[in-house]
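Checklist before submission:
- one chain only
- standard amino acids only
- sequence pasted in full

Submission:
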Amino acid sequence: MTPRPDAQTRETAKVRVAGLKQTRDQAHEIADQAKVAADEAMWQAIAAELDAGTVLQRDVAETTGFSRDHILRRTKPYRQN
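Returned file contents:
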């Protein structure tokens, strides 16, 4: 059985664990921001394709697996028409 750490050792370890948690939280925040940016870029590009008439909304639905209603709602802010 390992001996219990003293109070100073425990406090030092708690500081290290808090730093690890902070690093993890920052990485998650960066990942969430990247996901939002990727979504926005995708919906803007799809809206441009729809506006250009190079693809139909049902083609986008078939290709992405999203419903036509979802595509309409997500592309509406970026549409020119």
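Reviewer check: The chain has a mean pLDDT of 96.
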